[in-house]
Amino acid sequence: MSETPETKPLWTRDFTILTLGSVVSMFGNVMSGFAMSLLVLDYTASTFLYAVYVVVFTVPQLIVPVFSGAVLDRFSRRKTIYTLDFVSSILYMSAAFILHSGWFSFPLLAVYVFVVGCVHSVYQVAYQSFYPLLISEGNYFKAYSISGVLETASAVMVPVATYFYHLAGIAPLLAANAVCFFIAAVFETQIRHEEKYIEVQKEHRTAETDGKQMLDDIREGTRYIIGDRGLRAIALYFTVSALGYGASNVLVLPYFRNTYANGEYMYMIVQGMAIAGRGLGGMFHYRMRMPKERKYAIAVSVYCLTSIIEAFYLYTEIPVMAGLLFMSGLLGVTSYTIRIAATQSYVPDEKKGRFNGAFNMLNTLGSLGGELICGALGVYLSARGIISAVMIINLAAVFVFIIRNGKHVAEIYNTET
Fold first, then answer.
1. Can you tell me the distance from the alpha carbon of 288 to that of 298, in angstroms, rounded to the nearest whole number?
2. Which helix (H) or strand (E) holds 45?
3. Number of structural domains, the chain?
4. Which helix (H) or strand (E) holds 5?
5. What are the DSSP calls for 352-409, one per residue?
6. Structure confidence by residue, pLDDT tens digits, 130-139
7. Is 95 a member of any domain?
8. Does residue 353 belong to any structural domain of this protein?
């Protein structure tokens, strides 16, 4: 009897290797990334310079994904992934050596963060476009539930980073991250998956038209999204949603540090509840299959509820904040899993790089706008007021983009993945 989608194994050799490699690098990255945020705040004591630091990391993600998406539909995503992990290992070890000497320069740090942002941008498109190729038929929803749980679990490194940052400084954490990236790269060199999409692309191009084809590929990711009404609505909504993420990214941690004694620990407690919610939700979705005809309705409800929660939670006391963010995390991982599983199964393999590159660019455009505008406004206005405003805009975007194009979005979301 032939295998059904439900009986096909998810945990194949290649899927397991890529998952383990991503866990190792992800945990190290979260640890060093949060410690770097604390370093910038401690050395500069400036919300504006902290926003500059975040923006410099984000800027490459505005342009790089579009170019890398076109390249990654032509060449090996697998080789790109492990090569960039080796490069990241070198970058973090070099930074650890420099900072161990006790020397700090914000301009040099900005250049370093820009380079890391470029590497991260290419890696994200490669990983997002390669990961679905290793998922067996019928297991997309389950696989992205796992991805969400592991991404959530990596946040346990935030308190670890805080403890060791205060104990030993930034250099050992960066060195540990370098080791994590090296281990991940070694894992990823053992993946054997045959990337058939490369041959599909070769059939449609010649050496004489290679340069023109590359330019066409760069434009095609955006054209592909624009030409599909459902994908266009999803992409535009998440561009606006990223505005709120950018605002939170530059304002919430400084708000906690300026408002509470030991503010970074209060921040970790509150955000930890959001992490717990995402983890619990991800484990639930791994075990339970969501009815396909209800996915769109569930996603829309979640978009609305999380916008409202994120708009007003900072006006409450710490215990209430923690409860609200637990709910937000539980709901958020549900909509994330619906969206990413649906879009990645919907987009053809040979176009995944270009789609993910264009989608990431649009998300970064929103996030960067939130970081720049809200970071500047944060010098003069209340962080809570700014975040409330952008989250209300996000709520309006649910109606303007998702509900208004409900039929087309539902055709993507309401599928068996």
1. 15
2. none
3. 1
4. none
5. HHHHHHHHHHHHHHHHHHHHHHHHHHTTTS-HHHHHHHHHHHHHHHIIIIIITTHHHH
6. 888 898 887 8
7. yes
8. yes
Q: What's the rounded Cα separation, in Å, for the pair 271 and 282?
A: 17
How far apart CA 195 and CA 201 sit, in angstroms, is 11
Distance from C-alpha of 63 to C-alpha of 47, rounded to nearest angstrom: 26
Q: How many residues does the chain have?
A: 417
Residues 6+ apart with CB under 8 A from 166: none
Residue 4 domain-assigned (yes or no): no
Q: Which two tokens stand for residue 273?
A: 């509840």
What pTM did the predictor assign?
Answer: 0.74
CA dihedral 318, 324, 327, 333 (to 10 degrees): -80
Burial, 2: exposed, middle or buried (Cβ in 10 Å; 0-12, 13-18, 19+)? exposed
The answer to whether residue 83 is domain-embedded is yes
Can you give the residue range of the structural domain that contains 69?
A: 13-413
- Number of helical (H) and strand (E) elements in the chain, helices listed first: 17, 0
Give the list of residues 6+ apart from residue 377 with CB closer than 8 angstroms, or none. Answer: 386
pLDDT tens digits along 25-58: 888 888 888 888 888 888 887 777 887 888 888 7
Structure tokens at 408: 């087309």
Exposed / middle / buried, residue 168 (Cβ in 10 Å: 0-12, 13-18, 19+): exposed
| H or E stretch at 145 | helix 140-153
Contact 296, 413 (CB under 8 A): yes
Tokens of residue 82, six digits: 């492990």
Cα–Cα distance measured from residue 116 to residue 123, given in angstroms and rounded to the nearest whole number = 10
Q: Are 40 and 32 in contact (CB under 8 A)?
A: no
Q: Considering all CA atoms of the chain, what is the largest pairwise distance in Å, rounded to the nearest integer?
A: 68
CATH, residue 81: 1.20.1250.20
CA distance 103 to 338: 46
> What is d(CA 94, CA 90) in angstroms, rounded to the nearest whole number?
6
- Range in 6-10, 244-248, 381-385 with the lowest mean pLDDT: 6-10
Q: Which of 171, 126, 150, 111 is nearest to 26 (CA)?
A: 150
CA-to-CA distance for 351 and 356, rounded, in angstroms? 9
State the amino acid at position 46 in one-letter form. Answer: S
pLDDT reading at 407 higher than 50 = yes
* Token output for 344: 């990645």
